[in-house]
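A reminder from the course coordinator: this example appears on the midterm review sheet, so study it carefully.

Given structure:
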């Protein structure tokens, strides 16, 4: 099935066909002019020709050559079936009531049916020849094939039949009667017999003889349509009926059940037989204004639906949804041409969906030319458009041109859209109308409360023009709860020199207590501007106040509110005195009233202005405001204290240095710099703060002091070089208070080096190194080493290492590097030692080892021992005795071990005098093997020590005693036997075992009795070793023990 779109419109009121040529007319629901439509169905996609009509049409009749139609203007028109323009039939006028139907009669006459009458027209002369009045309302009309009979159907179901005896005679009533129960919808005479078909609201289909009394024959019986029949059509072999149930039936003239077609059909209005592609077909006109072509067989049976055609509205809807903008433009042009309700329904939708700016603009231009009332609605909708500003602006202009001069709705809508472009245009027009139309002035006043700030301000500007020199515009704006508008109104009152009126002064005073901070701030500045001398003094003295006051003076109500910064001009002390002297009581009154304001910001601004004027009356309120929660106020208090130049404010400023807000701290520090002549005192206060930013400013202040040149030309040492002796470790104590500026500066510099904030320490470090603040490179590095932070010590180490790599080496590098062995930070001292022991060409190894061995830190001594252990030269081992008396047992034990391994008896003899038993025993054990008598005595002495009572010392005593017993055993001297024998009685099993194992090496025949007694000892280790001793002496008693 093919779906086609043709550009016709209106409800189809008549259909005439001949072969492949069909003609139909339509009636527009709004009584607009339509066209005569000729549809050619000889091709697959058909062809529609349109012929203009001066009006719509209500009825159509025709034959194979000619058609006649009735216009809604009461005129009758005719035209050829296939082509040609329509022509009016004379001056006939049927405009009283609509023409319902037409019928062709004999002798070239035409019947014209109206509700209460039927007229007979002579088509040759175009004259009315007969009129027949009716009491009932007629609904349908049909004539016989010979034209001598016609029948009329009525609303109450009656049918009246008229007959003319001859082709030229008048028609007279032949018969009438009630045929249907309800309105007669359709009438049709049979082709060969004087009978007519009728269909009514009762859903019946009757066949009735026209001559004589009307006796209808029920043609439909049980096969009638479900809803009333609306169209009848004669075929060659069959009768076609179409109904409101969207079906078509064919009834064989010979009788039988009808054939029905329901699928895909509209609600039926008209039927006609046509040729489609030279084949028989049925053309169905629907009440939905569609046309459907249904294929027919030669026997006039239904085939398939071949084609559906929809009207111009469907065509426009289809094209408006296509992607090609050219096709969417065609839809616009057609709908604009239609200019009716249905067209505007589609235009409304296209306005919403169309994305192309150009097409939307074209739509507005087309609608602007439209005459339909709906054009205003569309222009109103387009005025509210948010997608394209040009569309919105064009729509507003077009709408404005279409409405009456006193119609203000376009301007109300434009303001309601919240769009600035059309809103401003609307306000301008309202301003021109306000002098003559109170409603326009009312809208302007209402616009002061608009959501858009720009429109509020525009309304204020225009009201100023409307009211002239009156302050009413600004006073009305002050009553609106929009702070920006109120602020602008106050400024404009000043700019227009309207501050002197009582109501204005009252409004200005009230505004200074407004809840909006910006508004009351502006109000107070305007109050200052009202006093010329006060304004001049403040602008000359305080740049920030000058900027704020200048901004108000340069304020543009409809501008961007940006002002060029005022150039700061230096004012001499004489000029200041003149400005202050020029101030009068009224000038101070504004500020004194402001200080009593209940809002802290206004109170502060007034106090600040007084402070700028060096009026001490501001001091008290500034002290109170220094504790205000608003950080901006607290910061301003700091600046105000600087203006007052009063020493009593210094404690408060020192407190503000610890404020949580950085801007407050910054202002307080700046004020302290101004109030305190001594910058070192200011820096000291800053370093006492808990915040890094103030520490940074303190450091800068300190460094600026250190960078200051001397007053005279004589060369002098820097401020810190005079303290070189202190840096090198003079007798001066750190706790002593600084006596002069140099010591104070040094103290502060050391504070900076020990600052809790890493960036401050780093900056101090860099500056010290770059500027040699210690007086020399060495002194500067020593100064940096006074810091208690490891990273600074590491930086010093890196500097020293870098200098150590330079050849020839500087004289101070090696001593300072060796000093770093004693550094408090392990990573620093160990890295320094590692470098010294590695870089043998640059650093003397023996000097480095000596310094390391004498270091107070065990880790450095340990690293030195490890180096000596790995590099056991005599020169290196010469440093070992220094550790024999070290308090760390691990160090001295490793040292004595290395001496033992090195075989140096002289050093070991010295070790026998060590205060540490572990060193003595290890040295004695080594020496006793070499037969040294002093070693034997040392071992005896160690074994004669009493057992300690402290539990913590018992473990060491046991270890030393065990080692000493082993040493006696290795001496293999009989004089050791008493000591060994004594330890056999020890309560410690470890000592008994060591003593028992020593027996075989320290006995002689003199100890046989004791040994024999020991063979009976209950302790196996004692018995076994006593047996070994007897065996070594060759005594047979040992066999028992050995066998055991």
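Designed residues:
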């Amino acid at each position: 099935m093919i779906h086609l779109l043709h550009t016709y419109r209106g409800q189809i009121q008549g259909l005439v066909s001949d072969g492949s040529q069909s003609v139909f007319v339509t009636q527009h629901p709004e009584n607009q002019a339509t066209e005569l439509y000729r549809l050619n169905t000889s091709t697959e996609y058909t062809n529609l020709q349109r012929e203009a009509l001066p009006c719509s049409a209500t009825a159509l009749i025709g034959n194979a050559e000619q058609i006649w139609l009735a216009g809604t203007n009461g005129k009758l028109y005719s035209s050829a079936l296939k082509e040609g323009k329509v022509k009016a039939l004379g001056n006939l006028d049927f405009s009283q009531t609509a023409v319902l139907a037409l019928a062709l009669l004999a002798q070239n006459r035409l019947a014209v049916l109206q509700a209460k009458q039927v007229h007979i027209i002579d088509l040759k002369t175009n004259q009315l020849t007969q009129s027949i009045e009716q009491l009932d309302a007629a609904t349908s009309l049909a004539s016989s094939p010979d034209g001598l009979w016609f029948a009329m159907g009525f609303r109450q179901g009656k049918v009246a039949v008229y007959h003319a005896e001859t082709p030229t005679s008048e028609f007279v009533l032949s018969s009438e009667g009630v045929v249907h129960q309800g309105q007669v919808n359709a009438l049709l005479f049979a082709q060969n017999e004087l009978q007519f078909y009728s269909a009514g609201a009762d859903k019946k289909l009757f066949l009735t003889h026209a001559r004589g009394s009307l006796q209808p024959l029920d043609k439909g019986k049980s096969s009638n349509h479900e809803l009333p029949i609306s169209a009848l059509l004669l075929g060659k072999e069959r009768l076609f009926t179409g109904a409101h149930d969207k079906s078509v039936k064919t009834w064989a003239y010979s009788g039988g059940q009808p054939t029905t077609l329901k699928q895909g059909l509209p609600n039926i209005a008209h039927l006609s037989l046509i040729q489609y592609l030279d084949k028989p077909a049925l053309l169905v006109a629907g009440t939905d204004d569609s046309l459907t072509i249904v294929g027919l067989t030669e026997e006039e049976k239904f085939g398939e639906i071949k084609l559906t055609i929809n009207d111009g509205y469907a065509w426009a809807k289809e094209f408006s949804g296509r992607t090609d903008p050219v096709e969417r433009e065609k839809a616009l042009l057609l709908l604009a041409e239609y200019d009716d309700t249905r067209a505007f329904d589609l235009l409304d939708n296209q306005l919403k969906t169309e994305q192309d700016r150009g097409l939307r603009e074209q739509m507005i231009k087309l609608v602007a030319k439209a005459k339909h009332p709906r054009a205003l609605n569309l222009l109103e909708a387009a005025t509210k458009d948010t997608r394209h500003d040009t569309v919105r602006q064009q729509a507003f202009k077009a709408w404005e041109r279409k409405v009456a001069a006193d119609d203000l709705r376009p301007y109300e809508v434009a303001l309601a859209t919240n769009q600035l472009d059309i809103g401003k245009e609307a306000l301008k027009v309202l301003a021109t109308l306000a002098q003559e139309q109170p409603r326009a002035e009312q809208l302007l006043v209402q616009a002061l409360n608009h959501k858009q700030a720009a429109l509020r301000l525009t309304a204020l500007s225009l009201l100023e023009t409307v009211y002239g020199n009156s302050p009413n515009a600004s006073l009305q704006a002050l009553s609106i709860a929009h702070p920006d508008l109120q602020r602008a109104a106050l400024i404009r009152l000043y700019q227009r020199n309207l501050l002197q009126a009582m109501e204005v002064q009252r409004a200005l005073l009230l505004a200074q207590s407004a809840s909006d901070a910006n508004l009351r701030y502006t109000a107070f500045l305007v109050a200052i501007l009202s006093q010329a001398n006060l304004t001049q003094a403040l602008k000359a003295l305080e740049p920030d106040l000058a900027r704020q006051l200048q901004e108000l003076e340069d304020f543009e109500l409809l501008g961007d509110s940006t002002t060029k910064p005022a150039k700061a001009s230096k004012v001499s002390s004489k000029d200041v005195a003149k400005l202050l002297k020029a101030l009068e009581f009224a000038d101070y009154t504004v500020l004194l009233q402001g200080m009593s304001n209940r809002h802290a910001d206004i109170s502060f601004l007034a106090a600040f202005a007084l402070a700028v004027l060096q009026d001490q009356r501001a001091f008290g309120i500034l002290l109170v405001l220094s504790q205000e929660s608003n950080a901006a106020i607290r910061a301003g208090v700091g600046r105000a204290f600087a203006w007052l130049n009063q020493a009593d404010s210094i404690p408060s400023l020192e407190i503000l240095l610890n404020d949580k807000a950085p801007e407050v701290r910054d202002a307080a520090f700046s004020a302290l710099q101004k109030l305190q002549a001594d910058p070192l005192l200011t820096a000291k206060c800053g370093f006492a703060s808990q915040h890094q930013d103030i520490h940074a400013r303190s450091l800068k202040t300190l460094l600026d002091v250190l960078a200051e040149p001397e007053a005279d030309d004589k060369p002098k040492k820097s401020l810190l070089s005079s303290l070189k002796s202190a840096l090198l470790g003079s007798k001066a104590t750190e706790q002593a208070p600084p006596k002069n500026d140099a010591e104070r500066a040094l103290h502060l510099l050391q504070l900076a080096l020990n600052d809790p904030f890493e960036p401050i320490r780093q900056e101090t470090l860099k500056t010290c190194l770059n500027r040699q603040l210690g007086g020399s490179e060495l002194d500067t590095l020593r100064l940096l080493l006074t810091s208690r932070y490891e990273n600074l010590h590491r930086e010093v180490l890196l500097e020293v290492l870098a200098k150590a790599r330079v050849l020839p080496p500087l004289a101070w590098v090696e001593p300072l590097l060796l000093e770093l062995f004693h550094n408090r930070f392990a990573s620093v001292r160990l890295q320094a030692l590692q470098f010294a022991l590695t870089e043998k060409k640059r650093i003397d190894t023996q000097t480095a080892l000596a310094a390391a061995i004498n270091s107070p830190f065990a880790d450095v001594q340990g690293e030195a021992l490890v180096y000596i252990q790995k590099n056991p030269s005599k020169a290196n081992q010469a440093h070992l005795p220094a550790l024999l008396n070290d308090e760390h047992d691990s160090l001295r034990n490793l040292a004595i071990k290395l001496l033992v391994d090195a075989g140096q008896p002289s050093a070991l003899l010295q070790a026998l005098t060590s205060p540490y038993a572990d060193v003595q025993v290890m040295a004695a054990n080594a020496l006793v093997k070499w037969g040294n008598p002093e070693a034997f005595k040392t071992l005896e002495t160690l074994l004669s020590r009493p057992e300690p009572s402290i539990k913590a010392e018992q473990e060491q005593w046991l270890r030393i005693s065990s080692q000493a017993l082993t040493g006696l055993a290795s001496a293999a001297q009989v004089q050791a036997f008493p000591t060994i024998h004594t330890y056999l009685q020890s309560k410690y099993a470890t000592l008994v075992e060591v003593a028992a194992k020593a027996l075989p090496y320290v006995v002689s025949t003199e100890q046989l009795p004791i040994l024999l007694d020991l063979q009976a000892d209950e302790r196996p280790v004692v018995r076994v070793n006593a047996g070994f001793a007897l065996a070594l002496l060759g005594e047979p008693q040992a066999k028992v023990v050995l066998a055991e």
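Confidence is low (pLDDT under 50) at residues 710-718, 720-734. Residues 472-530 form one domain.
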